[in-house]
Amino acid sequence: MNFNNEKVSLSQMGSILVLTMVGTGILTLPRSLAEAVGTDGWLLILIGGAICIGLLFIHSYIVKSFPGKSYMEIIACNLSKPVSYVVTALLAIYFIGLNAFLIRIFSEVVKMFLLLRTPIEVIIFSIVLMAAYLARQGIETLGRLAELLLPLILVPSLILFLLAMVGGDITNLLPAVTTTPKEILEALPIVIFSYLGFDIILIFGIYVNKPNKVIKSSTKALVFVVLLYTILNIVTISTFGEKQTTHLIWPTISLFKTIEFPGLFIENVEGFVMALWVLIVFMSIAPLLLVATTLLGDLFTVRDNKYFALPLLPLLYFIALLGDSLAEAYAYLEKFINYTAPFVLVIIPVSILISMFIRRRLRREGNTNV
Amino acid sequence: MFKRTLKKITLIYIILITLFLTGCWDKQEIDDRAFILAMGIDHVTPGHEGEREEMEEILTRKNHYRVTYVFPKQMMGVGEAEMTNVQISSVGENVYMTERQLTTRMDSELFLGHLKSVVVGEEVVNNPKMFREVLDALEKDPFITRKISFAIVEGEAKEALEVEPKLEPMTGQFIADLFRGRERTQRAPIKDLNEILIELHSNKTAVIPRMVVAEEELKVGGSAIINDYRLVGWLGEIETIMLMLVRGQTTIFNVTVEDGDVVIPYQITEAERKFTLVESGDQLKMRVEIDLEGDIIQHYFNPENDMLDPVFLQQLQSKINQKVHDKVAYTIKELQEKHRTDVVGFNDYVRKHHSKLWKKVEGDWADIFPTIEVEVVVDAKVRRVGLSK
Fold first, then answer.
1. Cβ-proximal residues to A15 (8 Å cutoff; 6+ apart), any chain
2. Disulfide engineering: B161 pairs with which of B40, B116, B176, B203, CB 3.0-4.6 Å?
């Protein structure tokens, strides 16, 4: 047993990735897809998934090529030191921002369905406090928890999906493949953003105990999420049809409201679904917080980065409360992601990759010259 | 020594902190909640006898809703507790306001999480604006499940809820149970709110079960046809069964056929329907194929015909075919000519399977539907004939 707090196994890393990707996006995805491309949502999920697998491949390749180095060190040795400071700071802001919006949407849903009279500030504060507690424990605890929770969440969810499938009409997916390539291109950001969170592999890559196998395990995690989203979308559209889906703010929750349990020993399964979902979102918030603290730790070159977890809380809290309404929070989130995500997902990793190849070639030429 | 004091301090600290961490804004005693089982929504015209104070206050406003809530309440008597059915109405400018106004007159809080059925008065459905308000009130509420039964009352919803059914004193439960008896007969469309909302979202049309109030009895039979969020007409019980058959939503019902002067009931156990678009030029033509399987339940003591004779069964089958064909064709004609509303499902079929054609006809579908030529083909099979020959 490896008890030092620096390493996670491949399967633990995979579980962290899956749980981080599946967050609040899962609630709105069927609606935004139905709005954008009608009944062809599943097609878009697959295309978007393929693109994300490509990006993830680049990310994992970078991590694999520099075993034992943190992301900041990787940037420093590829794109010079000053750049690494700027980029790391930006990354920290990105992850803090992303996390704050996640927390906001989580609290709004909890307030809507579970805690009607509890002030939203209290909901935010308690979930953030929990996440900070986990983030302070470090990556190993997180990995174990993820490994433990994944089957606990997954098995009931799949059973619920099956039950929801019973009431559906699969012909609602027709007409199939009628969207034009232009519509697909326009809708792609929606899908790619729903997979956001796989980029944490860049920062957590240093902790994986077998870095040369990281590509395989992270791809597996993403493929798994792609399948999950596809099933979810098919079940939702076949239950509600295209038009009804566009009229629901959180179709996924409404979907579970239509489930009729055989034998009626439980009347409403929403309570149960919400409990599972709280776990899922908590396991998105905690890794993102840990990522932010790790980045800050690298930035200020402190040995133990767990002291950053608590000071981040007020910041998260205030960013989370930025939007006046749910609609505004969603609008801010979209804007924020539109400006930062391409930078984090594509531009930095690709420039690292280019620099890696250039340096490799230079080295080879240098060798032949000598 | 120092370590021990530290431990003690930590312990005290932990105990103290738990005191501060337990707070419950959403604490609610179960006794203080009124679990609404049924809701009735009516339109009241000014001058209607009702809650006078509230009426005066809102007389000048446009929409007058009267919402009746039915819930069981435990009456503490001597000895055993007794459940009574309480019903209470309130008038307001929308559904939610009636709920708010009621809380000033009640000792407990209304809780809609266990709502079983909603009945709506005819008047509400005559006014598209009111009907849409009601539907949205039901769809938006995070506690109301989409599985509740929904029906339209011929007359007033309040009257329907005032009936105390002899079989089950809890009115809400009783209404929900009426819908659940789907194995018995299907004289009304079995629909929960979810299906009705989906249909209204996609086509603005719907078939909603009709509820009829009789003395000390409630009956669900027939259906209300909704077009453009407005009630356009009622469909009788037999027509409703046929409509459900064409929509592919029923598999169990009965028809009777006459053999000489004997009336033979035929119980259908399986039904399948298929639409085909035969002609798609200027004049659309649809073929509706219906395959039935079923049993002969009853015939005649010591009959002259042999029930096991294939020729006789052939005869019966063709009679069944003819009868079902006539009824289905009549129902579709009724919908085309009288109600001019496509609740048959042709629109969904064309949209799903002929999406190019649908793009062309989508806008004028309301005008095209009544002109569609419909061919009905019924194929009934008698599978079993009971125990006697």
1. A143, A146, A147, A149, A150, A221
2. B40
